[in-house]
Specification:
The complex is a heterotrimer of chains A (321), B (267) and C (355). Chain A is an all-alpha fold. Helix content of chain A is 73%, strand content 1%. A two-stranded antiparallel ribbon of chain A has the order 1-2. Chain A is globular, with a radius of gyration of 25 Å. Chain A starts with a helix and ends with a helix. The longest helix of chain C is centred in the middle third of the chain and has 18 residues. The chains are: A mainly alpha (321), B mainly alpha (267), C alpha+beta (355).
Chain lengths: 321, 267, 355
C-alpha cells in the first residue's frame, strides 16, 4: 500500500475504519487462532518428551534440539545425522530453485512480449500445471524415469546407452550415480530429485516473475536499441538490472517452499540423502513416531525458512530506498 | 529474425517439458491392466468408470476432496475479505500485520503448518473430521484471496465512493452497492485459485485427516507406496481438466493478465 | 548529414493497413513535423524510420544506402520517446553516455562527451543525479542529450512535449527548434499539436488514416490547404456545404463568390472552408459576398474575440484580434458579414473530407 493511496482515503471509507470493534476482534481472534497457534504449538511441543508408545508429555527439555544438532548420545559420541538431513534440504532446494528461476526467466520475458490474448492462453496453461498436485507430478516423473519402462528403456532401445559406452561418457555417468553397470538409471539420484523439484516450482517462478516483467517499460528496451544495443546487450544492460530484485526474491521464495517438499524426495532421493522434511514426517506420522522430536526438526525448518524470508524482505527494503 | 524463432522454439520446448509427465499420466490412465505402462497397453476407458462410479473408495475420496475444496475456498474468501478491506481502507501497521499473519501459512513450508494443525486439532478433539480439513485448508490458502481481493480493491476509483456519498449512501450501502460489485471478478478468482489448490493439496491434508478419511490426493499417495493402478491416473486427468476449465473461465470473463499482476494498459 | 527518402512505404497489422503508400523526402538539416490526429499512422511511420517496426513494403534510403532491412540498433537514429524512457538504474550522465559505453568508447572520452551534451541542454552539473529526482522538463533534456550522444544521422522525436505541462511546452518548442538549427541535424518530430508543428517545422507532413494529406511549409499549409481535412486540422475553419453554379458556389439561398478552380464544373458538390479571421463585419468598403447575420454569442478571451453568428448560410464564427476594431458586439445584434474572395477555400465534397 503506497502512501499516496492512503492519503486519498475518502470520508466514507475512513468512517468505515471505525467499524464496530466486535467484528475487528473476531477477525483477529480467528486469524491468530488459525494462523498462529499451529506454529506456536509446534514450537512448544518441540520441548516435550516422548513417552512409551506413540504418545508424549509436556516438558521443557532441550533433548530434542540436542539430538538434532549433535546426536542423542552426546557427549559420548557425536553424529550429525540430522544436520546432514538439513544440509540436503538446503542443497536440493538451492539447486532446484535457482534452476527453476533461470529457465523460467527467459520464458516469462518472451511471454510478456506477446499479445494480451496469447498471454492469457499461456497463463491458463501455466496456472493449470501449477495447480497440479505434487503427487501427480511425482507419479508422472516416476513413470518417465522408471528404470524398467521409462527413459532408461528409451535410451537402451534407441542405442543411446551403447553409444554412451562407446564414447566413454557412460563411466562419467556411473561416477555421478546416474548409471549402474547395464544401463543408465535416473531413479533415486540427485539428478532426478532436483529435476522433479525444479519442475514442481517452475510454474510458480513464472507467476512470480510475471508482474515485474510485464510491467517492464518496453520503450526502455526500444530506446536502448536506437542507441546501438543488440538483443543481448539490451537484456544485460536494461532488462536484468530492472528485474534483478524480483529474480532474487523469487529464488528465495521458491527456496523456502522447497525446504518442505516431501513426496518428491521420498520417491527420487537416495536413501542416504534424504531431507529434514522427510524425517519430520517420519517422526510425526511415520515409523519413528516421536512427535516432540519431529516438532523440533520442524522448528529448525521454520527458522531456516524464516531466516531466508527475512533476508528477502531486507533486500527488498534496501533496494527500494 | 533468427532470435524470434529461437525464442518461439524455447517457449515451445518449455511447454513440451511442462506437459511431459502430464501426458504420461493421462496416457497411462488408459491402461487395461493394473500397471502404469506408457504407451498404454490394451487401452480402455474402464478406469474412468471405476473412478467415478464403481469403486467406492475413489468415489468417497472424490466426494471428500470436493467438500473440502469448496468449503475451504468459500471460508477463505469469507475471512480474507475483512482483512483485505481493512488493509485497503486503513493500511495501518495493524492491518498490515494481520494480512501478513493470514498469509504466513502459505509462505512457510506447508509441512510445518500441517504438523502444527495436527496438534491443534488433536487438542480440540476434532482431529480426523472433515470440518477440520475444511478449516485447515481455508487457513492455508487465505493468502490467495487476500492477494486477489487486494488487487481488486486497489483498482476501485476512489471518486466512485465520493460520488456515492454525495448521493446519500452510508458506508454500508456504498460497500454493498459500489465496492462489492466492482470487486466480484477478484473475489471469484480468489475463490477459484483456493479451490483448485485445495483439490490438489496433499501434505497438510495428510496430517489433518490422520487416516480417518481420504481425499483423492491422499488416496493416490497411499497407492504410490503400493504401486500404481491406472485408476489413479484418471484422478489426475480429472483434476487437470477441472483446473483448465476453471482458469479458462477466469480468463474468459475476467482479465487474467491483470489479475496475475500485469498493468491494464497493454493490449 | 544525409537526407532520408521513403518510397512506397506501407504497413499492415493483420488485415488493417496502418500506413499506406508513403513517399516522402526529408532534406538534410531540416526539421519535419509529422502531424495528424491519433491513429493516423504518424507514430507507426516514425517507428519504421527508426527501425523499431519493419515496413510491410517499400524502401527507406539514407542518402544512397538502402536501410529498409537494417535493424534498429544498426541504424542508430537518436530517438526521444514520449515518456522519455530514461533508465532508472543509471544516473543522468550514465544515461547520456549509454550509447558510447556499449560501443566501447573510452571512459574519459565518454565523460567528456557527456559533459558537452549536458552543457548543450543546459543541465551542467546534473550528471550525478538520479532520474527519479528530475522534473519533467529536466527529463526531456536528458532524453534529448542521450539521443544526440551517438551523433546520429537522423534525430527522431515521438510526441516529445506530451509529457510536459502546457506552460513548459511552448518554451521547449522554441528551445528545441533553436537547438536543432544550431546542430543542423535532420530531424523528424511526431505531434498531434498543430501549433507545435507550426512553431518548429521547416516542413509539415499532414497525415490522416495512414495517408499523407499534404506536405509543405507551415504557412503554405495554413493559407493554401489542399483539402477539407487539412483546412480543419490546421487552425480553425468554418465549413459550409454547397454546389457549384457557373463559377460561383450556391449555399442555400446565397451565391458566394470565390476563386473557383477550373476543375469544378457546375453541379459538383463542394465544401467551402473559411478561416474565422478573414470575414469582416459591417464593413462597407470590402469586396466579397455579403450575408445577413445575427450575433448569438461573444467570446472575449483577451487577445482575441470570437463572435458567433447565425448567418443565411449557417452558423459561423468570426474572429477579431484586439486592436483590429473598437466596436462592441452584443447578442442579438444584426450585422452584415462580408466574405472576401481570397478567404474562401473550396474542396470537393466526399465522405473522407467530412472529418
Amino acid at each position: 500500500m503506497s502512501a499516496a493511496s492512503q492519503v486519498v482515503v475518502p470520508m466514507t471509507v475512513a468512517a468505515a475504519a471505525k467499524r464496530p470493534p466486535l467484528a475487528r476482534i473476531a477477525i483477529w481472534v480467528v486469524t491468530l487462532f488459525l494462523c498462529l497457534t499451529p506454529f506456536l504449538l509446534v514450537i512448544v511441543i518441540s520441548f516435550g518428551h516422548k513417552v512409551e508408545g506413540a504418545s508424549w508429555e509436556w516438558a521443557f527439555s532441550l533433548d530434542n534440539y540436542q539430538r538434532v544438532f549433535v546426536g542423542a548420545n552426546w557427549p559420548d559420541e557425536v553424529t550429525f545425522l540430522y544436520l546432514q538431513k538439513l544440509y540436503y534440504s538446503l542443497y536440493y532446494a538451492v539447486i532446484a530453485s535457482v534452476l527453476a528461476v533461470l529457465t523460467a526467466f527467459p520464458f516469462t520475458y518472451l511471454m510478456t512480449g506477446l499479445s494480451k490474448r496469447a498471454q492469457s492462453v499461456w497463463l491458463v496453461f501455466i496456472l493449470s500445471s501449477l495447480s497440479l498436485s505434487e503427487v501427480f507430478i511425482v507419479m508422472g516423473w516416476d513413470v518417465l524415469l522408471s528404470n524398467r519402462s521409462g527413459l532408461p528403456m528409451v535410451f537402451k532401445a534407441t542405442g543411446l546407452t551403447q553409444w554412451l559406452k562407446d564414447v566413454g561418457w557412460f563411466d562419467t555417468l556411473r561416477d555421478w550415480g546416474l548409471a549402474n553397470p547395464r544401463n543408465v538409471k535416473f531413479k533415486t539420484s540427485v539428478f532426478a530429485t532436483v529435476l522433479t523439484m525444479a519442475y514442481l516450482v517452475w510454474p510458480y517462478a513464472v507467476i512470480l516473475l510475471y508482474p515485474p516483467l510485464s510491467r517492464l517499460d518496453r520503450s526502455m528496451t526500444e530506446a536502448a536499441r536506437t542507441m546501438g544495443a543488440g538483443p543481448w546487450t539490451v537484456i544485460r544492460t536494461v532488462v536484468l538490472p530492472a528485474v534483478r530484485l524480483p529474480l532474487i526474491g523469487s529464488v528465495l521464495l521458491l527456496f523456502v517452499f522447497l525446504l518442505g517438499v516431501y513426496v518428491a524426495v521420498t520417491v527420487f532421493a537416495e536413501p542416504a540423502k534424504q531431507t529434514m522434511a522427510v524425517s519430520v514426517y517420519e517422526a510425526v506420522r511415520g515409523n519413528t513416531l516421536n512427535a516432540p522430536f519431529g516438532s523440533a526438526q520442524a522448528v529448525i525448518l521454520l527458522l531456516t525458512a524464516g531466516l531466508f524470508l527475512t533476508l528477502g524482505q531486507w533486500l527488498t527494503r534496501r533496494n527500494a530506498s | 529474425m533468427i532470435l524470434r524463432t529461437l525464442g518461439n522454439l524455447f517457449m515451445a520446448l518449455s511447454a513440451v517439458m511442462l506437459s511431459l509427465p502430464i501426458v504420461v499420466v493421462c496416457g497411462a490412465a488408459l491402461n487395461s491392466g493394473r500397471s502404469m505402462f506408457f504407451p498404454p497397453r490394451d487401452p480402455t476407458l474402464a478406469r474412468f468408470h471405476e473412478f467415478f462410479i464403481s469403486e467406492p473408495v475413489w468415489v468417497e475420496a472424490l466426494t471428500n476432496s470436493m467438500i473440502i475444496a469448496f468449503g475451504s475456498a468459500a471460508l477463505a474468501v469469507l475471512i480474507a475479505w475483512p482483512m483485505a478491506y481493512e488493509l485497503w481502507a486503513r493500511g495501518d501497521k495493524a492491518s498490515k500485520f494481520l494480512a501478513g499473519l493470514g498469509s504466513m501459512p502459505f509462505a512457510l513450508p506447508p509441512i510445518v503448518f500441517g504438523v502444527g494443525l495436527g496438534f491443534l486439532w488433536t487438542f480440540l478433539g476434532v482431529l480426523g473430521s472433515v470440518w477440520a480439513g475444511v478449516v485447515s485448508h481455508a487457513a492455508l490458502f487465505l493468502a490467495l484471496p487476500i492477494v486477489t481481493i487486494s488487487i481488486g480493491l486497489q483498482s476501485i476509483d476512489r471518486s466512485h465512493l465520493d460520488a456515492a456519498a454525495t448521493m446519500g449512501a452510508t458506508r454500508a450501502v456504498t460497500f454493498r452497492t459500489v465496492i462489492l460489485p466492482q470487486t466480484i471478478p477478484y473475489t471469484v478468482s480468489g475463490f477459484f485459485f483456493a479451490l483448485v489448490l485445495s483439490f490438489n493439496e496433499f501434505i497438510v491434508m495428510f496430517f489433518v485427516s490422520a487416516s480417518s478419511y481420504s481425499t483423492v490426493t491422499l488416496q493416490i499417495f497411499n497407492s504410490l507406496r503400493n504401486g500404481y493402478t491406472p485408476t489413479m491416473a484418471v484422478a489426475a486427468i480429472t483434476f487437470i481438466c477441472v483446473s483448465v476449465m476453471v482458469f479458462s473461465a477466469v480468463a474468459r470473463w475476467g482479465d487474467l493478465p491483470r489479475l496475475m499482476g500485469a498493468e491494464s494498459t497493454k493490449s | 548529414m544525409k537526407g532520408l527518402h521513403l518510397a512506397g512505404i506501407y504497413k499492415d497489422f493483420g488485415s488493417v493497413r496502418a500506413v499506406e503508400n508513403i513517399k516522402l523526402d526529408f532534406a538534410e538539416g531540416e526539421l519535419t513535423a509529422l502531424l495528424g490526429p491519433s491513429g493516423c499512422g504518424k507514430t507507426t511511420l516514425l517507428r519504421m524510420i527508426a527501425g523499431l517496426e519493419m515496413p510491410s513494403g517499400g524502401s527507406i534510403l539514407l542518402g544512397e544506402d538502402n536501410i529498409t532491412a537494417l535493424a534498429a540498433h544498426k541504424r542508430r537514429f537518436g530517438m526521444v520517446f514520449q515518456n522519455f524512457a530514461l533508465f532508472p538504474h543509471l544516473s543522468v550522465r550514465e544515461n547520456v553516455v549509454y550509447s558510447l559505453v556499449i560501443a566501447g568508447t573510452s571512459k574519459s572520452d565518454a565523460i567528456d562527451t557527456g559533459e558537452r551534451l549536458l552543457d548543450l541542454v543546459q543541465l551542467s552539473g546534473y550528471g550525478d543525479r538520479r532520474i527519479g529526482e528530475l522534473s519533467g522538463g529536466q527529463r526531456q533534456r536528458v532524453a534529448i542529450a542521450r539521443a544526440l550522444a551517438q551523433e546520429p544521422e537522423v534525430f527522431l522525436l515521438d510526441e516529445p512535449m506530451s509529457a510536459l505541462d502546457a506552460k513548459l511546452r511552448e518554451d521547449m518548442q522554441v528551445e528545441l527548434r533553436l537547438l536543432q538549427q544550431r546542430l543542423g541535424i535532420t530531424t523528424i518530430v511526431v505531434t498531434h499539436d498543430q501549433r507545435e508543428a507550426m512553431t518548429m517545422a521547416d516542413k509539415i507532413v499532414v497525415m490522416s488514416q495512414g495517408r499523407v494529406e499534404q506536405v509543405g511549409p507551415p504557412q503554405q499549409i495554413y493559407h493554401r490547404p489542399e483539402n477539407a481535412f487539412v483546412a480543419d486540422f490546421i487552425g480553425k475553419a468554418n465549413f459550409f456545404d454547397g454546389v457549384v453554379e457557373a463559377g460561383k458556389v450556391r449555399v442555400g439561398q446565397s451565391l458566394l463568390e470565390l476563386k473557383t478552380p477550373a476543375e469544378f464544373i457546375s453541379g459538383s458538390p463542394v465544401q467551402i472552408a473559411c478561416r474565422p479571421e478573414t470575414p469582416y463585419l459591417d464593413s462597407d468598403g470590402i469586396a466579397g459576398s455579403r450575408l445577413k447575420a445575427s450575433v448569438t454569442f461573444v467570446r472575449d478571451v483577451g487577445p482575441v474575440r470570437d463572435i458567433h453568428l447565425q448567418t443565411e448560410i449557417g452558423p459561423m464564427i468570426v474572429e477579431y484580434a484586439r486592436g483590429e476594431t473598437e466596436r462592441s458586439f452584443t447578442v442579438g445584434q444584426e450585422t452584415i458579414v462580408t466574405l472576401p474572395v481570397e478567404g474562401l477555400h473550396v474542396f470537393p465534397r466526399n465522405e473522407r473530407a467530412a472529418a
